[in-house]
Specification:
- This protein is of the alpha/beta class and 239 residues long.
- The chain is built from seven helices and five strands; from the N terminus they run H-H-H-E-H-E-H-E-H-E-E-H.
- 48% of the residues lie in helices and 12% in strands.
- Helix 1 packs antiparallel against helix 3 and helix 5 packs across helix 7.
- The longest helix is centred in the first third of the chain and has 35 residues.
Amino acid sequence: NPTSPKASTKQPQQPLRPSGNTGVKGVLADYREAQQDEQLRREEGRLESLRAFDRATRPAVRAECIPDDINNKGGNGDDCGSDGDSNGDLDDGDDDFLKQFRSQRLAQLQSTAASNLLPTFGSLSSVPPDEYAQLVDDIDSRVYLIVHLFESTIQECRMLHSALEKVATCMNHAKFVEVEALEANPNMDTICLPAVLVYRAGELTHNLVRFTDELPRGFGVDEVREVLEGLGVVNLIGN
């Protein structure tokens, strides 16, 4: 008879921290906080090792230097100070120092994390051709630049404009701009419009002419966003 597989006794993994966040933002927030906590624990471990070493190598009080009346009666003498109170004061000082150290390091880690975050945009802006060319070269290399080449007399361009205005608000780590096609190139054949150009790190990664041909007749935000996400234009750091 075939042997039945044993039931797994592995406990389900607990969430990194209690959070109301879900989806990409929540996962990233949990991941960053877990990384910060782990780095703090490692540094506190090294600090605790130094404290233990300091205590272990601190000169001990010798019994022979304590007067007999102190040994017998528990009094206080002037020849050799009692190390008990001193150690207590030092431990309290260590605790205060550790709290201050943790607070400072957490602030430093949070500052570093903030500097590594992607810039946010959240809107569709109209730019002239020279600014469009400058953006291709100057924008953060991690950011997708989405360029809508349009002509206002073409209905599909107007529909795509309306959809991209809304898509830009929910894909706010990508930069959305639109350029009048005939202003950029007076000799352009408008039959290829609307066109969507996707750049990253100064390189043209996708050139989508007649962008709306593959979309349903009454396309909207969801359909346009789905196409862009299929190209990898999402709000995840490092993608």
